[in-house]
Amino acid sequence: MASSFPAFLLPLLVVVGMTLMMGHTTEALDLVVTNSDQGSDGGKRFDAEIGKSGAMEMLDSASKFVWDTFRQQSPADRKNVQKISLIVESMPDKPSIVAYTIGEEIHLKSESMAGTQGDIKTGIRGVLYHEVTHVWQWFGNGNAPSGLTEGIADYVRLTAGLVDPNWVKPGGGDRWDEGYAVTAYFLQYCESVSSGFVANMNAKLAGGWDVGFFKDLTGKSVDELWNDYKAKYASPA
C-alpha cells in the first residue's frame, strides 16, 4: 500500500517523495513527483486532476504491472531501480513529444495536458505505463532496435487496457520493428504463439541483442512471424 504524509506537511513547491513497500520484501521504491510548471495551464490541470499523490499511485501500479508482465516476482529478477522520478515540465521545443524517459527519470510535457479535451487521467496513466516500462525493461546492452523496445513499452500499455484511441489498428504497419503500437500488436501475436514471449524476450535483452531471439522463443524467424501476423489480418480477396 502507498503511504502519504499529512497535507499540512507537504511542501508546496518542492519535490514530494513517497516510499512504497515492494510486496513482502524489505526493499523500498522511492517515487518522487515534481511539478516544475505549476503556473501554466497544463501544470495547473495536472495538480487539479491528477496531483502528486495520483501520479505516485500511477507510477506504483505501473511498476507492479510491468513486473507481472515481465514475470519478475522477485526483486532479484529486476533491474536495480531504487527510485523513479516524474517531472512535469514545459517542452516548447518538443512539439511531437508527450513524455520521455532517461534512466529512472520520466519527463511529462505540461502542454499536452493543457490541450487535451475531457478527462486526462486515463491518457496520462497510459503514458506513464509506457514510460515506466522503459525504466524497468532491458535494452540489449544498448543494441536492441528502438522499435522493439518502444513496442514492448506499448505492449505493456496495451495489455493494461490503456490503448490510445489514435493508435494504428492490429495488423497495421509495414515492418515488425516500426515501433510503438505497430510492434505492440505484433508482440501480442507473438505472445499468442508462445506464452511468456514478451517476458522471455525482455530477459534475453538483459544480456544483449540478437534477432535470432525470435526463433529461440517461437521456433520461427521474425520474418516468418511477421508474415504470419500480416496474413492473419489480411483483407479477404
From TrEMBL:
Glycoprotein as a keyword? no
Known Pfam families for this protein? BSP
Any signal peptide, and if so, which residues? Answer: 1-28
Please give the start and end residues of each transmembrane region.
none
Task: Report the domain of life of the source organism.
Answer: Eukaryota
Q: Which UniProt keywords apply?
A: Signal
Any idea what this protein is called?
A: Plant basic secretory protein (BSP) family protein
